[in-house]
Specification:
CATH class: Alpha Beta
Strand order of the largest sheet: 3-4-5
Shape: globular
Order of helices and strands: HEEHEEEH
Number of domains: 1
CATH topology: Bacillus phage protein
Number of helices: 3
Strand content: 15-25%
Largest sheet: 3 strands, antiparallel
Radius of gyration: 16 Å
Helix content: 25-40%
Length: 127
Amino acid sequence: MNDELLMRAAQANGHAYPWRMPNGFGERPWNPLTNNEDAFVLAVRIGLQVTAYPMYDEPKHSVIVRKPVWDHDAQEGDGVEVVEPYGTDALAATRRAITMCAAELARRKTPNVELSGHQRPARKDEK
């Protein structure tokens, strides 16, 4: 599941997965699920909004990551929004929400293409 999520997130950022990042001693794998810098750069490059949000009256919070649609042709519901509860690790929840939002954006751009290269049949509500 995480591999598919990372493949889609890399696709949203215009890269293939696995993707290697340079560091001071060579290269490291790109992984916005575990690396704060990778998640932050991903959010900035594809224009995601990240907002900490209180979850009702509970003492715990969640993070909302969204990609609104700004063009004049947008229909209600065209944007992407992911809400992820913090649980015990706010940074991990934020990284996961960013990655999930990016992956969903990529999936919507190519909804009928499976990452393995196989095509899935279109659903009845898809054109």
